[in-house]
Write a structure and sequence with these properties.
Elements (H helix, E strand, L loop, with lengths): L20 H7 L10 H11 L12 H7 L4 H24 L6 H34 L3 E6 L2 E6 L8 E5 L7 E13 L1 H4 L4 E3 L18 E2 L4 E13 L5 H4 L13 H31 L4 H15 L4 H18 L2 E3 L3 H6 L4 E4 L11 E7 L3 E4 L10 E2 L6 H16 L4 E5 L2 E5 L2 H4 L1 H7 L4 H7 L2 E8 L4 E7 L12 E7 L1 H6 L1 E6 L2 E4 L2 H16 L3 E10 L8 H4 L3 E10 L4 H12 L3 E5 L4 H11 L8 E3 H6 L2 H8 L4 E3 L3 H13 L4 E5 L5 H6 L2 E5 L5 H6 L2 E3 L4 H42 L8 H11 L1 H8 L24 H30 L6 H22 L16 H19 L1 H7 L6 H28 L10
The structure holds adenosine-5'-triphosphate.
């Protein structure tokens, strides 16, 4: 093979549209029949790199770091640091000591650490999302060394011959070699929403604008309709899209509703802190000016205590871990908010073929005018017999053979043997007709080589039909009455509507009303057994109809017969549907298939009962929005629907207050996926366009995966609630303790800013991370979904936080009183305020350890839970307790944190007081249980 394309021959992209297809192929050193050789592909990959855009849309690293400081809470901490440093410096000036603003330094360290942590997490998250993007990278069908194969789009090289079909995102710039009804949406490039028609034959003037280059296709645009073959002319940054490559984030990184709510909460907390500080400082100094300094110190501590410093980090980590767990279960999250929404899904609308069923199609029955038989065989293996035939009359057999021949030709699938297994490349529905033809004795290889296809109307989910045109003389098996032979196959009803004749033996007879009824009755019999039925018809032409006339050409057809295809349900779907029901989620089937097939399969897997009402697309069209809303309340099976009906069904379900997950694969499903609360695209069979419109991609196309992802979503939601109540409860406790301390008139602030930061970040932060990976309540899929409009603080979470905060404060304050009087009265050597403050500090920290253990579940007692099911919680509690003790018993830490060496009795008293919070939370659970006796499932996390 020549390769005139070389580094010394730089790419003259601008002229491709002004050359004929053959010339382009020549210049690129490619070959129309064979494609590039593997060696040449390797050479080009090495020389020109991968077909990838360099992502300019990503934030530079320094920007991510600077962005961390845009947080009001951090700004408030910085202000606290400045005020605290000023106070410390003033104090050391008064005392003539060397100024060392310890609290301010610590706050600064925390702020910077927080920013670094945020930076690391965000850049990790960006990398993870980029990795997800690669997982979702489109595949391309190419021709290399004479073989058609599927590769990842980054592996394309200039000169590769690649194939285009509806729903595909064009992977590189290319010159068309062939285009059949090819319509491409070039909005990504030209901003033009309307699809443009392409034409491979045209040779255009050099100065044609990009938008008018009808013989070229461009990377990043989407095939709306039709089919094509093109040769790659430019890859990666050399493509037209590459030239405008900024802001091409395929995976969106918007904050989740929770993250937004947390930012709002942060802002609100800052305001609350300011108001509290104002009240304490102004009110207190009006009362007694000499207290001003103490009051300012109290205010600073309070401002630090209000801010849950560790919370944002824990939330980000939880969401990131959650998406990873979902990938392990084959659900790829494309938009982070989906993680949360998944937990509140109330309805899952699923396609049938491939999602609920296995998409392994085997023809089980055929029927023509005079012949009908069952077909045996295993998978796609082309071995099997026609049995139970009603006749062996040669005329009837002729009908059957014509049916098989037509099925094999009105077909874009390929039958291949991989090792010992027979597989289908392309659409399995079509693929099933290939082994069928071989079973009938047709030499498929010879047929595919000889038969010359001259035109086609590709399949589309609205027409539910496709047609191909062959030159009659290229098919020896066919009685050539006219130069062209057209074959149409599709949904039996819709194909039959277009028929006027029927094939009877070698004759063509008029199709009577009775014939039609008989065919439809046979169709229903097949469908009622759960078979997917295709109708096949044909017609002869003396000349080819113009390409645009699908409507007029698919008329006056000659009916050939029916094939019934078995596509058994996936075995795991039965359990998944049952799980949905238990979890209060309604599974709904929305399919393009026949009503009876849909009902049969739906009742086999438990989506409906046999005989339940099913709605068809046509019926939906006749309903007003109100009538549709009434119907969607009860109907769970929708058949013969087009993508536009899917959109109406989602909208109607949403009007009924449902939170809808909707699956889709075809290019026209994109609007319905966008409308759904969770748009789910098929990873294996889905088109690029659908994937891009989706929130989640099913890597295995399996319905059970949606259910698994929903379960993960629920677990994540309840874990988030769990650590929020844990962290914020502690913050509330700290604030109340500090705010009330001046009222006790003990003189001194119970917790310094440094100690509070320690609590918020370490003694609260570590256990909170451990609570975030709690495996989840075993009953999580036995309860109804959370109400869609429920606040994350809803269902008692807010009042719980306040209760626990109050208990913490009561424990802290009573200990404070006791410790103060104990240290001032019973201990020789005078009062050192660090002594009682250290006891308060230790008690609050240890109390949170007990709280962490109790917070693992809000329904089950700690002793009822398997301690090994979340060893992290125990680990974090042990580590944090040891660290807390080190703060008291390791001299350097003691000096730095300003703590006091506690005696055994003092420590024992702290431990005693701190267990009260644990006891309280456990008692609460018992009371709740009593209140919900007999309805345990009403209790939830
Ligand atoms: P689902 O939406 O559950 O995936 P489906 O795969 O049956 O259902 P479509 O692919 O839209 O939905 O198919 C609708 C109908 O079109 C089928 O019932 C069948 O009669 C017909 N059909 C499907 N594939 C082809 C094909 N390749 N050629 C001709 N007709 C087809």
């Amino acid at each position: 093979m020549t390769s005139s394309y070389s580094p010394s021959n730089p790419k003259p992209q601008a002229v491709w549209h002004a050359l004929s297809a053959d010339e382009v192929i020549n210049r690129l050193g490619s070959d129309r029949q064979e494609g590039l050789s593997f060696a040449e592909v390797e050479r080009r990959q090495a020389a020109y790199g991968r077909n990838e855009l360099i992502d300019n849309g990503r934030r530079p690293r320094w920007q991510i770091f600077i962005d961390q400081f845009r947080n009001v809470m951090l700004i408030m901490l910085l202000v606290v640091a400045i005020v605290s440093a000023t106070l410390d410096i003033l104090e050391s000036l008064e005392e003539n000591t060397f100024p060392f603003p310890k609290d301010a330094t610590a706050i600064l360290v925390v702020v910077i650490l927080n920013a670094i942590l945020g930076y690391v997490q965000e850049s990790r998250a960006e990398e993870a999302l980029a990795a997800l993007k690669n997982m979702a990278a489109p595949k391309v069908r190419v021709l290399r060394q004479g073989k058609v194969m599927e590769i990842d789009s980054p592996e394309l090289v200039v000169g590769d011959i690649f194939f285009l079909e509806a729903g595909v995102k064009v992977a590189a710039d290319g010159r068309l070699l062939e285009a059949v009804n090819l319509q491409i949406r070039e909005a990504a490039l030209t901003g033009e929403a309307e699809a443009t028609s392409k034409d491979a034959e045209k040779v255009l003037p050099i100065d044609t604008e990009v938008g008018d280059r009808a013989n070229l296709v461009f990377a990043g645009t989407e095939v709306n309709q039709g089919r094509g073959v093109a040769v790659v002319t430019a890859i990666g940054m050399d493509t037209e899209l590459g030239k405008i490559a900024a802001a091409l984030q395929e995976v969106e990184q918007e904050p989740t509703p929770l993250q937004k709510r947390m930012t709002e909460l942060g802002n609100r907390l800052v305001w609350i802190a300011l108001v509290l500080v104002g009240i304490v400082v102004v009110g207190g100094s009006l009362y007694d000016v000499s207290l001003l300094r103490e009051l300012i110190e109290v205010s600073l501590s309070m401002a630090v205590a209000v801010v849950p410093e560790g919370l944002p980090a824990v939330i980000t980590v939880t969401l990131a871990l959650g998406t990873q767990r979902m990938v392990k279960r084959h659900a790829l999250i494309r938009r982070l908010p989906a993680v949360e929404t998944l937990g509140s899904i109330t309805t899952i609308c699923s396609d049938k073929t491939g999602t609920l069923t296995q998409n392994k199609m085997v023809v089980q029955a055929v029927a023509t005018s005079s012949y009908c038989a069952k077909v045996s065989g295993n998978g796609y293996e082309p071995k099997g017999d026609f049995y139970n035939a009603n006749t062996d009359d040669p005329a009837a057999l002729y009908e059957r053979q014509l049916l098989l021949l037509a099925g094999a030709l009105c077909n874009d699938a390929l039958l291949k043997q991989h090792a010992a297994e027979w597989v289908i490349l392309g659409d399995p529905t079509e693929g099933s007709l290939l082994p069928l033809a071989v079973k009938g004795g047709i030499d498929l290889k010879a047929l595919q080589q000889q038969a010359e296809r001259v035109a086609e109307f590709p399949f589309d989910a609205d027409r539910k039909r496709m047609s191909t045109f062959y030159r009659s003389e290229s098919i020896p098996e066919m009685p050539a009455t006219e130069p062209y032979w057209m074959i149409t196959k599709g949904s039996p009803e819709l194909t039959l509507e277009r028929c006027r004749w029927r094939q009877v033996g070698q004759d063509i007879q008029p199709l009577t009303l009775a014939d039609r009824q008989e065919i439809l009755a046979e169709n229903d019999r097949f469908a009622a057994q759960g078979l997917r039925v295709l109708g096949i018809a044909h017609r002869y032409w003396s000349e080819l109809p113009p390409a645009a006339s699908v409507e007029t050409s698919e008329q006056e057809l000659i009916w050939l017969g029916l094939v019934g295809i078995l596509d058994p349900p996936r075995p795991e779907v039965l359990e998944a549907v049952a799980t949905c029901r238990r979890a209060g989620i309604r599974p709904i089937m929305i399919t393009g298939d026949h009503q009876l097939t849909a009902q049969a399969i739906a009742s086999q897997i438990g989506i409906c009962e046999w005989g339940d009402r099913a709605l068809t697309g046509r019926e939906i069209e006749k309903l007003s929005p109100e009538e549709l809303d009434a119907a969607t309340l009860t109907v769970s099976v929708y058949a013969r629907v087009s993508p536009e009906h899917k959109l109406r069904i989602v909208q109607s379900l949403q009007r009924n207050g449902e939170i809808v997950a909707m699956t889709g694969d075809g290019v026209n499903d994109a609007p319905a996926l966008k409308q759904a609360d969770i748009g789910v695209a098929m990873g294996m069979t889905g088109t690029d366009v659908t994937k891009e419109a989706s929130d989640m991609v099913l890597l295995d196309d399996n319905f059970a995966t949606i259910v698994a992802a929903t379960e993960e979503g629920r677990v994540i939601y309840s874990n988030i609630r769990r650590f929020i109540k844990y962290i914020l409860g502690s913050n509330i406790g700290e604030v109340i303790t500090i705010a009330c301390s001046p009222l006790l008139g003990l003189g001194g602030v119970p917790l310094t800013p440094l100690q509070i930061l320690w609590m918020n970040l370490v003694t609260d932060g570590l256990p909170a991370l451990a609570l975030a990976v709690e495996p989840g309540d075993p009953d999580v899929m036995k309860r109804p979904p959370v109400k869609p409009n429920e606040s994350i603080f809803g269902r008692g979470l807010g009042s719980y936080m306040i209760r626990v905060g109050l208990i913490l404060a009561i424990v802290g304050l009573s200990l404070m009183v006791w410790a103060y009087s104990y240290t001032s009265e019973h201990i020789e050597g005078g009062l050192d305020p660090r002594r009682w403050t250290t006891m308060v500090f230790t008690t609050l920290c240890l109390a949170q350890m007990g709280h962490a253990l109790a917070a693992r579940s809000s329904t089950r007692l700690t002793i009822e839970m398997n301690p090994t099911s979340n060893l992290f919680v125990w680990g974090s509690v042990i580590v944090t307790t040891i660290l807390q003790l080190l703060l008291i018993y390791a001299p350097p830490l003691r000096r730095f944190f300003g703590t006091y060496l506690l005696s055994e009795i003092e420590l024992a008293v702290c431990i005693g007081f701190s267990t009260l919070v644990f006891v309280w939370v456990e008692l609460e659970k018992l009371v709740l249980r009593l209140l919900h006796r007999g309805h345990p499932l009403q209790l939830r996390e």
